[in-house]
Amino acid sequence: MIVLLLRSALFAVLQTLLTIVFSLVALLTFPFSARIRYRTITLWNRIVVWLAEVVCGIRYRVIGLENLPNTPAVVMAKHQSAWETIALPVLLPPMALVIKRELLWVPFFGWGMAMLSPIAINRAEGRAALKQIVEQGRVRLAEGFGVMIFPEGTRMAPGEIGRYGIGGAWLASHVNALVVPVAHNAGELWPKNSFLKHPGLITLSIGPVIDAAGMKPDALNEQVKAWIETEMKQLQRHA
Q1: What percentage of the chain reaches a pLDDT higher than 90?
Q2: Residue 19 CB: number of other CB atoms within 10 A?
Q3: I want to staple 22 with a disulfide (CB 3.0 to 4.6 A). Which of 4, 8, 44, 62 is the partner?
């Protein structure tokens, strides 16, 4: 336990220092194109994922890469941990994240996040937030970026299932986009609200593409949920 605590503490210190440095770097990328900003700022993500492996022993494997389409898509992912929010932007093609706008107010971290042109919504606004997701999501997809959203909206402990919000399915069905469901078991090693990071192997599973053309948002949302939660049971069984 002492070793685990020390490794987690070292990781926290290194991540904090790295975040401060890259927040300043992110501000310097403002004059450049969205692609250059993305490649530069997500170096932070790559380094943090590497530090998690080297310092904390958190390794990962990705299955289903062959399912990724050649065109920008809407990624709908399980949310258990901070790990996937850091890793997915560099393990998958470039994409804009749908986030709660409060994240942009976090010192240092929010500065870097803002330079990635996320879709920052006020979740309390309901229909207005859905309209924003569609309008800005359409633009991001046209620019060649995917759009990533966590349907549950908040991190869920392993074994728990949150309410799947309609935002991602609403966007995909309104713009006839492809949808990529993603499951993983990161919460087993990097639990929510926990300082300790546990060594082990995270499995990230990319599901078959779902064509949203002609689908109702509710039906699409249920199909995504069904695949993710079925896959989660498989991942937990083999954890």
Answers
A1: 91
A2: 17
A3: 44
